[in-house]
Write a structure and sequence with these properties.
This protein is mainly β and 119 residues long. Strands 2, 4, 5, 6, 9, 10 and 11 form a 7-stranded mixed sheet that branches. A 4-stranded antiparallel sheet has the order 1-3-8-7, with no helix packed on it.
């Protein structure tokens, strides 16, 4: 199992930057993939960015060039650096971890952290 705790959300003006963090309860080397999803009111949860155990990253088209996912292995923490924020980035951001065991995917979620982009 994996417990995930997000932090770092808040209110930021358009064009500003914010970094959210996700602390995992186990070594992130043991986790096959970690990522960030977001869910805005009235919308489905969507993938924002993912980083695999091997270090490969992938981003939603809407955030490419503005957001960066990276990790600190020693701290068991994955970060999402968000720059040039837009009002449409407003959402609850959820940390996600995936474990693959015998071809079965086990998914874990954090409690979410609110990011609001508004002037």
């Amino acid at each position: 199992q994996v417990q995930l705790v997000e932090s770092g959300g808040g209110l930021v003006q358009p064009g500003g930057s914010l970094r959210v963090s996700c602390l995992a309860s186990r070594s992130i080397f043991s986790i096959d993939a970690m990522g960030w999803y977001r869910q805005a009111p009235g919308r489905q949860r969507e993938l924002v960015a993912v980083i695999t155990r091997g270090g490969s990253t992938n981003y939603a088209d809407s955030v490419k060039g503005r957001f960066t996912i990276f990790r600190d292995n020693a701290k068991n923490t994955v970060y999402l650096q968000m720059n040039s924020l837009k009002p449409e980035d407003t959402a609850v951001y959820y940390c996600h971890a995936q474990l693959l065991l015998s071809a079965i995917s086990y998914d874990y979620w954090g409690q979410g952290t609110q990011v609001t982009v508004s002037s």
